[in-house]
Sequence to fold (132 residues):
Amino acid sequence: MGGEDFHYSSILVHDIMTRALITVNLATTALQVAKMMEQGGIGAILVQDNDNPVGIVTDRDFATRIVANNLPFDTSVEKIMSSPLISINHNEPISVAAEMMTVKKIRKLAVTKNGKVVGIITSTDLVTQLAK
Fold:
């Protein structure tokens, strides 16, 4: 799907991204992250090393890395996170976000502004926008 085929090319990533971010450090355990996800009703948490975003832990990471490999729940997120963190600029059209997700076979992108992570955009955000 090219940008010209997408009817929402005028809608930008920052228009539909989630601005509320939950971040943890590399030593946080899988169990702690799972509890944060449940309490926050979210499917992804960013992982930082000295305030520098280095990865993301998603609900899918639990299924494919913790459960499938029978890892203990006290495993650090450093061992299960998806890294490097894949990001998109906040001023890109959402068609570019959709293309990146499709090509990279992922469902969540960190959103950056001036090199700093300011949000997250998910495939659910894109589908919700299409349904409007």
